[in-house]
Amino acid sequence: MPSTMDYADRLRLADLRVTRPRIAVLQAVHAHPHADTEMIIDAVRTVLPTVSQQTVYGTLHTVTAHGLVRRIQPPGSVARYESRVGDNHHHDVCRSCGAIADVDCTIGETPCLAASHDNGYTVDEAEIFFWGLCPTCTTSQQRT
Predict the structure, then answer these.
(1) Which among 70, 61, 79, 63 is positioned nearest to 7, based on CA atoms?
(2) 80 with 93: CB under 8 angstroms?
(3) Which secondary structure element, helix H or strand E, spans residue 131, and what is its range?
(4) What is the predicted pLDDT for the residue at 111?
(5) Which end of the chain is less crowded, N or C, counting CB atoms within 10 A of the terminal residue's CB?
(6) In DSSP terms, which residues pair with 92 in a beta bridge?
(7) Which ranges of the chain does DSSP label H, i.e. alpha helix?
(8) What is the Cα–Cα distance from 2 to 128, expressed in whole angstroms?
(9) Which strands, in side-by-side order, build the sheet including 35-36?
């Protein structure tokens, strides 16, 4: 996991002021991949006990807008945040427990990865969720 100085450097490179809440939010997102806002607030409060929810929400918005964090939201789920940005990865989502795992790339025939019609848009990203059961939930269901 990156150090506090690494987070400060990332903030400076994004032309953002370095603050304790911003560093704490980046640390929390790196330590808890695919965490929702409440989990991030709890993690930040272990370092900064008096930080407000609004500060964490605002910081998440800012670091996401500047490309330091990625926000994902599988259909039917709350927003989640991850530190893995700038690559073409997708996600596995468990239908039972909601666990999320990174998928590096899609392989094989990909008929749905290129839009049949772009409607005049300049497409720069595709968001793909693979739905199923995680290994833990699969094992649980096999036992019942």
Answers:
(1) 63
(2) no
(3) strand 129-132
(4) 47
(5) C
(6) 101, 130
(7) 4-13, 20-31, 37-47, 53-65, 135-143
(8) 28
(9) 35-36, 80-82, 70-72
CA angle 63, 65, 71 (to 5 degrees): 80
Residue whose tokens read 């272990």: 46
Indicate if the pLDDT at residue 65 is higher than 60: yes
Give the β-pairing of 80-82 and 70-72. Answer: antiparallel
What percent of the chain lies above the pLDDT cut of 90? 69
Contact 92, 132 (CB under 8 A): yes
Beta-carbon contacts of residue 41 (< 8 Å; ≥ 6 apart): 51, 53, 56
CA distances from 32 to 62, 82, 119, 134 (A): 18, 8, 37, 18
pLDDT digits (tens, 9 = 90+) for 3-55: 767 999 999 999 999 999 999 999 999 999 999 999 999 999 999 999 999 99
